[in-house]
Amino acid sequence: MEQTPAAPRERRKIIFSAIQPTGVFTLGNYIGAVRNWPPLQKDYDCLYCVADLHAITVRQDPATLRRNTLEAYALLMACGLDPEKSILFIQSHNPDHAQGAWVLNCYTQFGELSRMTQFKDKSARYADNINAGLFTYPTLMAADILLYQTNFVPVGEDQRQHLEITRDIAGRFNGVYGPTLTVPEAFIPKAEKGARIMSLQDPTRKMSKSDPNPKGLVSILDEPGVILKKFRSAVTDSEARVAAGPGKEGIANLMGIYSVFTGKDFAAIQEEFAGKGYGDFKTAVGETVIQALEPVQRRYKELMADKAYLEDCYRRGAQQAARLSHRTLEKMYKRVGFLHA
Ligand code: TYM
Q: How far is the CA of 195 from the centre of ligand 1 (A)?
């Protein structure tokens, strides 16, 4: 009998995600996104990047941006991403992102960009600098994702709308030119597993690096004493009952954080703290967070002490990323009719 060739090994699915270097990651970034990235390295081909191109949609001090970019890169590694297992790079080091974004800009409608809630929020917050980059931010994000033929994008809940527009743009491009870009899916944690961590001072607003009130956010490099203090002064309610429910957004937020690090569900947490005051609960949450962040903080210090190693990693990461993105960019250029250079 004639021998048939072995079936090709099924290709691993591709994961892409990114984070802006606009300051030390918050507990929201960590729980909603970065913490979920390392386990994916085992079963997927993963790419993770520091989105410095996105960061300049808001005015940045150049020296601070440079420092924040290196720190964000080191933080990704400190959180468990391994340059031997994933491609870890800095967005501006691969020019394909800007080039791909230009093409995709021409397949994105003014109307759909105008509907982006992040654009509306940011243009209200930075009313003196509503630049075109802020407006076309989602097309750059679409390029980030689509250039790698990404299957899944692990992000927090606040990025859902950007993922939807990415899917629309990919679908439109494919509709005009035939299958070219993989239409990606969002990987968003369940609500009670930290898809949206709220400010400790205003539990109706998401925890954000740019919160003007530093007590509202926990940064993953905060000292243990600072973390404990922030949790102890978290805004809750006057009911003194550890349970979720209407008017109890502050407690529900703390329960979500506690649940992520202890693996306990809300019913178990409610039982654990039945009859105890908020003081005990807040201290327990703070201590759990301190314990979870300790290895990240330790590893971060080691990495920042070896800048040559970090440089080596991000250079290699950019080369690996560019090799992959280039294939897609070339395909896109060909599809739209650019003459081969
Ligand atoms: P960024 O830098 O604002 O946030 C990085 C990741 O953290 C998640 N996140 C949260 N999750 C839960 N609760 C919170 N309070 C919270 N705050 C932030 C975000 O959902 C995100 O996953 N535009 C992106 C960066 C980006 C990107 C991409 C992401 C650029 N290109 C391509 C995915 C794919 C951003 O500004 O994330």
A: 11
Fill in the DSSP letter of residue 196: S
Burial of 314 (0-12, 13-18, 19+ CB in 10 A): buried
Opening angle at CA 260, ends 257 and 262, nearest 5:
105
Which residue type occupies 13? K
On the question of pLDDT at 191 being above 90, the answer is no
220 CB-near residues (< 8 Å, 6+ apart):
24, 25, 26, 27, 29, 30, 75, 79, 293, 296, 297
* Residue 81, CA distances (Å) to 74, 145, 149, 309 in order: 10, 18, 21, 15
* Ligand 1 centroid – CA 2 distance (Å): 53
Encode 173-189: b = buried (16+ Cβ within 10 Å), e = exposed: beeebeebbbbbebbbb
Q: How far apart are CA 87 and CA 27, in angstroms?
A: 23
Q: Locate 229 and state its tokens.
A: 């203090």
Q: 337: alpha, beta or left, given left = phi > 0 and alpha = psi -120 to 50? A: left
* pLDDT, mean of residues 206-216: 91
Mean pLDDT of 229-256: 94
Strands (E), 7-78: 14-19, 45-50
Distance from C-alpha of 288 to C-alpha of 264, rounded to nearest angstrom:
12
- For residue 199, report the phi and psi dihedrals to the nearest 5 degrees: -60, 140
In angstroms, the CA 232 to CA 67 distance is: 31
Q: pLDDT tens across 83-110, in order?
A: 999 999 999 999 999 999 999 999 999 9
| pTM across the whole model | 0.95
Q: Please indicate whether residue 141, judged by its CB atom, sits closer than 6 Å to ligand 1.
A: yes
How far is Cα 164 from Cα 175, in angstroms, rounded to an integer? 16
**Most informative mutation of 22, 29, 145 for ligand 1 (most atoms within 8 A of CB):** 29
